[in-house]
Amino acid sequence: MQTKAAVDDNPIKNWLKTSPLAAPMTVARMMMAGYRGYPTSWDNEDEQTRGILNALNTRGYYVYEGYYTPEQCAAMRNEIDTVIEDNKDSVSFDDLIGDARLFGAEKVSEMIDQFNKDEYFQKLSDLYHGEHAPAPFTMAARLVPNDINKDKDHGWHRDSLRRQFKTIVYLDDVTEENGPFQYITESQHMSSIFFDTMSGQIPYMSSAITAQSVKRLTDKDPSRLHTVTGKAGTVVIADTTGIHRGSTIKSGHRYALTNYYMFQDLIGPYMNDYFGPLAYRESAANS
Ligand SMILES: O=C(O)CCC(=O)C(=O)O
Ligand SMILES: [Fe+2]
After folding, report:
1. pLDDT per residue over 149-198, tens digit each?
2. Rounded-to-integer distance, Cα 234 and Cα 64, Å
3. Which of 14, 82, 171, 277 could cysteine-pair with 73, CB 3.0–4.6 Å?
4. Ligand 1 mean position to 159 CA, how many Å?
5. What residue owns the CA closest to ligand 1's atom 2?
6. Domains located in the chain, CATH noted
7. Which ligand is nearest to the CA of 171?
8. Inter-axis angle of helices 47-58 and 119-129, nearest 10
């Protein structure tokens, strides 16, 4: 049996990963994964809705300010502390770096469930996916600075090669210091997936993307790098097919809630293997 090291050392495989074939192979994989073009059937929606969806379609993300008041954000931060404390068995703790993430936090908190069930974001998801695409779970996250990550320039990735949409609400004021969301604009387009893979020299089969690859893209066009700072209560709405990351937190903390919207055929019990026991619930598939 070949060991992993032996596979990684395979010169043909390595050549394929970084060869000019990486780009067409990535696009082929994306189409096999069920890529759907970009529906634009929101012409009859109100101006704000059209503006948000058009921003997702072109640049890749939209910033919606003032979803929660500062007081609601404070209450929500307390709520996250409580659900993390009360559901330790379901929380992914990174003891080394101190981060805590609870996938499915809405199942143990009515407050968080309201964000999960937000009707307007659900409507945006349905329009953007071109079909009903619910959020089977919300992730509550509490991020803090740590010595291991503090000097690292990493974390870039695509969530999926199939259209995906997330809403992330900042529950702290987010500056350059405490882990702002960053996005490479237009990287969600199939054409960019092709050309960025080439010019960034992004290896085939890699959802993680090195800082070096991203630098190649931003050196070519610095205006593509966007860092989303914002007051507590700001919601980042993003097509996470595009290249993005939560940047490294250097000081303070960053509490946030993230709704994971998904095509219904992707929702199933297997999610609990990836995200923990609260992620999947039967009714979500039919909600
Ligand atoms: O929390 C963030 O800023 C982004 C994290 C992320 O990559 C995601 O939710 O897909
Ligand atoms: Fe992501």
Report:
1. 888 889 999 998 888 999 999 999 999 999 999 999 999 998 888 899 98
2. 6
3. 171
4. 9
5. 246
6. 17-286 (2.60.120.620)
7. 1
8. 50
